[in-house]
């Protein structure tokens, strides 16, 4: 399915505009990658360290997982409306950037205050405040790539963007290893300051050139009626029984939930099973992040040949192999190996899932809203995944966390196997 509208005819008084996907490709990918890197740096540190902060008040892994999951549920409520608004702003001079910049500034305040909270109510205000604001603009930042890169290049662009995301795991792990055990307050101040700095640079070099972006044409009167609200767009995407969109959202829910659960509970697992300090346990994800970084771009190029959904299915298999290694070898080296394998499996999903959903959009005028579909599915998984895995830990003990994750991953494999048989050929092969 091609999302591009036919090019407008040129006249003697209207010189043809260069193809944005060709002329701005490298620069656009670089600066959008930095923008996504900026926000994910905060989220990765949040996922690594907030669960240990909650252990001061809760002993149940299920409760901690539930809290870590519920903060992602804000995206379900806010993303459709915010994504639809960003689609409207995309056709204006400022583009989607005001939502991203204002959201980042507001979200930084409660995040920095998390280690200053001296009681549970104050901590929950900070956690919920950050999650509500940060989830509102998270999907908008990811949609920026569609404003500057043509559909044919978005899959490869996602590879570079996800490579940038993997660097945030490296940054988060280094902050955990080098700063957390010395000054927790300083550690929580570094990621939001990094986010504000990098987002500002991205806007300065890319946002000011939004007039050159790959903008959709103005809507016709009929399109205004059909796309008049975010809920109308979502209803149109989900109402067709033969559409692969709902099943793809189920697959996104499953894989995002598994990954979020593993990331959220890794630090407590390291302290409880492996006997590591909080800082050392927070650094267990570092080798996996390096492996993700090295492999994600080759995976993006290989996915163009394999097909997006087939590549995701292979990723699920690799993820299962990783968590089984973690269960079989419950040592620090075994856990590191498990995170490397599962990170490589997740990389295949991270590169392909959102691009596959964009390909199902009826027009590029609603790509921000379709990103909201991704956010709804992934946020739902992130909301429930940690609680589900944490509950199984309460029932079986921390020693069996990886085995429980393998069972959940098997369900995910079945979903993507069926999806590969129903989705359009472009996404499969």
UniProtKB/TrEMBL annotation:
Subcellular location: Cell membrane
Keyword tags: Cell membrane, Membrane, Transmembrane, Transmembrane helix
Transmembrane parts of this sequence: 27-46, 97-116, 122-140, 160-180, 186-206, 245-262, 282-302, 314-332, 338-358, 370-389, 401-420
InterPro entries (UniProt xref): MFS (IPR011701), MFS_dom (IPR020846), MFS_Efflux_Transporters (IPR050189), MFS_trans_sf (IPR036259)
Record SUPFAM superfamilies: MFS general substrate transporter
Topology versus the membrane: Multi-pass membrane protein
Top-rank taxon, per record: Bacteria
Residue span, Major facilitator superfamily (MFS) profile domain: 244-429
Protein name in UniProt: MFS transporter
Species annotation: Streptomyces rugosispiralis
């Amino acid at each position: 399915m091609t999302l591009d509208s036919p090019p407008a005819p040129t006249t003697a008084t209207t010189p043809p505009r260069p193809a944005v996907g060709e002329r701005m490709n490298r620069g656009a990918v670089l600066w959008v990658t930095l923008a996504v890197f900026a926000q994910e740096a905060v989220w990765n540190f949040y996922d690594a360290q907030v669960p240990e902060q909650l252990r001061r008040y809760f002993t149940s892994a299920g409760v901690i997982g539930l809290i870590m999951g519920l903060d992602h549920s804000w995206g379900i409520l806010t993303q459709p409306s915010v994504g639809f608004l960003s689609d409207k702003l995309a056709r204006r001079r400022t583009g989607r950037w005001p939502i991203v910049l204002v959201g980042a500034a507001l979200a930084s305040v409660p995040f920095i205050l998390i280690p200053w909270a001296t009681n549970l109510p104050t901590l929950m205000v900070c956690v919920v405040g950050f999650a509500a604001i940060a989830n509102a603009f998270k999907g908008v930042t990811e949609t920026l790539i569609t404003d500057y890169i043509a559909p044919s290049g978005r899959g490869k662009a996602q590879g570079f963007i996800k490579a940038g995301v993997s660097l945030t795991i490296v940054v988060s792990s280094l902050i955990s290893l080098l700063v957390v055990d010395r000054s927790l307050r300083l550690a929580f101040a570094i990621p939001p300051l990094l986010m504000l700095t990098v987002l500002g640079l991205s806007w300065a070099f890319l946002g000011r050139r939004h007039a050159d972006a790959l903008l959709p044409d103005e809507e016709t009167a009929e399109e205004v009626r059909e796309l008049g609200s975010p809920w109308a767009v979502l209803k149109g995407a989900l109402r067709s029984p033969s559409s692969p969109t709902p099943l793809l959202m189920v697959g996104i829910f499953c894989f995002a939930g598994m990954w979020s659960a593993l990331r959220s509970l890794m630090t407590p697992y390291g302290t409880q099973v492996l006997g590591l300090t909080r800082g050392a346990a927070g650094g267990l994800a570092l080798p996996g992040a390096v492996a993700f970084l090295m492999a994600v771009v080759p995976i993006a190029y290989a996915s163009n040949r394999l097909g997006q959904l087939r590549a995701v299915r292979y990723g699920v298999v690799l993820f299962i192999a990783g968590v089984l290694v973690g269960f079989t070898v419950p040592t620090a080296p075994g856990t590191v190996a498990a995170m490397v394998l599962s990170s490589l499996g997740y990389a295949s999903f991270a590169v392909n899932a959102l691009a596959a959903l964009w390909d199902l959009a009826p027009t590029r005028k609603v790509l921000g809203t379709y990103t909201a579909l991704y956010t709804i599915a992934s946020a739902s998984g992130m909301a429930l995944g940690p609680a589900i895995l944490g509950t199984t830990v309460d029932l079986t003990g921390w020693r069996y966390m990886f085995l429980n994750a393998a069972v959940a991953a098997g369900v995910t494999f079945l979903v993507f196997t069926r999806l590969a048989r129903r989705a359009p050929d472009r996404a499969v092969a």
